[in-house]
Automatic annotation (TrEMBL), chains A, B:
Its EC number is 4.2.1.68. Residues 198-294 form the Mandelate racemase/muconate lactonizing enzyme C-terminal domain. Keywords: Lyase, Magnesium, Metal-binding. It comes from Kribbella speibonae. One of its GO terms (molecular function) is magnesium ion binding. SUPFAM superfamilies: Enolase C-terminal domain-like (SSF51604), Enolase N-terminal domain-like (SSF54826). The keyword Phosphoprotein does not apply. This is L-fuconate dehydratase. GO terms for biological process: amino acid catabolic process; carbohydrate catabolic process. Its cofactor is Mg(2+). It is an enzyme of class 4 (lyase). InterPro entries: Enolase-like_C_sf, Enolase-like_N, Enolase_C-like, L-fuconate_dehydratase, Mandel_Rmase/mucon_lact_enz_CS, Mandelate_racemase_C, Mandelate_racemase_N_dom, RHMD-like.
Length: 438, 438
């Protein structure tokens, strides 16, 4: 009976600010980073890997918080933990002293995500299946037991969640077979970072079309003139049929968002993403009403399930972009998927950063197989970036994620990558500091 | 020209869990704590003191975050900082890498509160006046420049905020004179902690009436039978005229909150506080509609101004209980007071914990003098607890805060208290650890 013997947490930072990969109107100089957690066990070769995604400074805070969050796991029986993943989540989440620092938001919640991501990875590895399959083989009752429905029962009582999942049970096998052929559709954001030149934007749009993408996303929001010019270039290259999405990364107040998006309406964007504060449910509802038929999307900074519940209740968004490393892992993500299906809002998970693509492919596949049972309006983000650090990187073919086959949550990074990019004492950062000081 | 020479941050924890002071349905074992910040200067005797309030584990995270937040202040000219308190707030707040870990919520935001509370304390000390007077002598334009109105302009454009403040300018002096006589009204929570026996509850209610309080608050939410018995005791002692408030500290889902509060309606509570998740704007609106005329109050876990904006827009609360150490200091608190006045919702700040009473007295006084100009429905929390650690503790007489006269934000703790209760190496904690290990 294997036990968890120790918890390792690593502050790993990649120097993406040097190339402006990932640059947008709010985040001009992010170093894509992770607070990376390993749950070591005494079973040969068995460990759980997870992380939360960060962009540089403060990753150390998430690492310190993750060690506190994970402390109750040390010495615990792996089988008992994996047999009741709702119980372990509730145990870690209910530390009332840490809860005060949220609740369910900010550093302590990101840390919970990192730790529980590692627990779910461990559970899938122990079962010898990829996470999407572990979830797809759970019964409706098991899924609802694992989900965090606290504060959601006014919108979705437990019994209705079970009924919803049960209604989708019969087609699971067929939908898996479909995805094994076609993959799960994705779009690319790699073309449209704000720091890229017009020539690079044009070339990357051309490459996206050539690679079979039906969706391309551009960053906007720093300068309206620039946005008009960049959207024109993109629309020229994409033609009328490839979908163009735009993403403002929270830079606008509500009235400005409405005005700016209307000025870009001629380029027929499918959605405006993060038009304002991620906390502003009523603001998103107002923007949605004003810019229709352009859709409103948000969620990568959606702090918890209570926010998403309200987004759905208020009819505030057309697309739910939950984040696999910001919500409290699969337990809270399950709740948001259930709510989204109940309110009939498509979930198009946020990805990119470090390793988010690796995680969200599992979630999107599971959603199609067992929750929404639909691909309508659903397309998952993909950014071709930093995958080389992962032992089982996601694979995209013809604008679709290929179903991952290896056991786990695809979260494991190469030891060499951790050692090179560990902050501040990995070899990359020590060399850079030495270079800076000469 | 004095400069900031260094930043000190202390993890200070008081062992309140031993006596159940502060116990409620959600937080049964809090050790009231603070991430305490001192901005040292090279001017003789001039320093800024501030903190955020925590309840034990994780205070170290806030301390580490505060040091990162405050780093840009080191070496800076005190006069320049104090002459544009909006600029320094925006500079610290706009660190995009730390922003990713919120934005504007959780540990990084609590840390911003701690640091900016110290900056405001420094500014008031430098001016030689208590903080409430510093604010009360600022012009409408200066106040609005200091306020964080980002993401709020759909509800309250800058010009309207200035107009609102200007309309209250003429009576400032008279209202100060009034408060110098009567103080600012407060209520006590000291009677009603959940862990107290019935006999202690009865005695403390009797003492509260004898001390002149017109408002008494009880914790509820763990057991309905207990709540009915405790409310009956309280109402018996208080009689029909003293207001009784009840506080559930977020333990209920929305349907349960409605049912439970209705079961306590016979005891005529003035408000139900924190009936559900602090993030649930629409949930509070639903509860308010269902339990009227009992009022709904929340805010001590209100993470930022965007949440409060929506609480007001949705008509979700009757009382706004902002927290002086959770919001981003005076800059963000100003914005919430302005919104509250605009929407005509009384602000009754959360206090208690460590030092929150010391802070909120300044805010409440300033609100009456310069923002709302009203005392209607306004009563500030007071808990008789841990004041002995403060150099200038708040003073309550006849159920009202006496106007503080010393320069600053009343935030300074005795050095001896810091040294005794610093975690884990202060003398109290080392002695306790030694005792535990024998």
């Amino acid at each position: 009976m294997p036990r968890i013997t120790s918890v390792e947490a690593v502050d790993v930072r990649f120097p993406t600010s040097l190339t402006q990969d990932g640059s947008d109107a709010m985040n001009k100089d992010g170093d894509h980073s992770a607070a990376y957690v390993v749950l070591h066990t005494d079973a040969d070769g068995l460990a759980g890997h997870g992380f939360t995604f960060t962009i540089g400074r403060g990753t150390d805070l998430c690492v310190a918080a993750a060690l506190q969050r994970a402390e109750p796991l040390i010495g615990r029986d792996v089988g008992e933990l994996c047999d009741d993943l709702g119980a372990v989540y509730r145990e870690l989440q209910s530390d009332t002293q840490l809860r005060w620092l949220g609740p369910d938001k900010g550093v302590v919640h990101l840390a919970l995500a990192a730790v529980m991501n590692a627990v779910w990875d461990l559970a899938a590895r122990r079962a010898g299946v990829p996470l999407w399959r572990l979830l797809s083989e759970m019964s409706p009752e098991q899924l609802v037991d694992a989900a965090d429905l606290r504060y959601l029962t006014d919108a979705l009582p437990r019994e209705q969640a079970i009924t919803l999942l049960a209604s989708r049970e019969s087609g699971r096998r067929q939908r898996i077979a479909e995805l094994e052929v076609s993959g799960y559709p994705c779009y690319t954001t790699s073309a449209g970072w704000l720091g890229y030149s017009d020539a690079k934007l044009r070339r990357l749009c051309e490459e996206a079309v050539a690679a079979g993408y039906n969706y391309v996303k551009l960053k906007v929001g720093a300068s309206l003139d620039d946005d008009i010019r960049r959207c024109r270039i993109a629309r020229e290259v994409l033609g009328p049929d490839v979908h163009l999405m735009i993403d403002a990364n929270q830079v606008w107040d509500v009235p400005e968002a409405i005005e700016w998006v209307k000025a870009l309406a001629a380029f027929d964007p499918l959605w405006i993403e993060e038009p304002t504060s991620p906390d502003d449910v009523l603001g998103h509802a107002a923007i949605r009403k004003a810019v229709a038929p352009i859709g409103v999307a948000t969620g990568e900074h959606g702090m918890n399930r209570v926010l998403f519940k309200q987004m759905f209740q208020a009819g505030a968004i057309d697309y739910c972009q939950l984040d696999a490393a910001r919500l409290g892992s699969v337990n809270e993500i399950l709740a948001v998927y259930l709510l989204a299906a109940w309110f009939d809002v498509p979930v198009c998970p946020h990805a990119g950063g470090v390793g988010l693509c690796e995680l969200v492919q599992h979630l999107a596949i599971f959603d199609y197989v067992a929750v929404s049972g639909s691909l309508d309006g659903r397309v998952t983000e993909y950014v071709d970036h930093l995958h080389e650090h992962f032992v089982e990187p996601c694979v995209v073919r013809n604008g679709a994620y290929v179903l991952p086959g290896a056991p786990g949550y695809s979260a494991e990074m190469y030891r060499q990558s951790l050692e090179t990019y560990r902050f501040p004492d990995g070899s990359y950062w020590t060399a850079r500091a030495a270079g800076a000081s000469t």
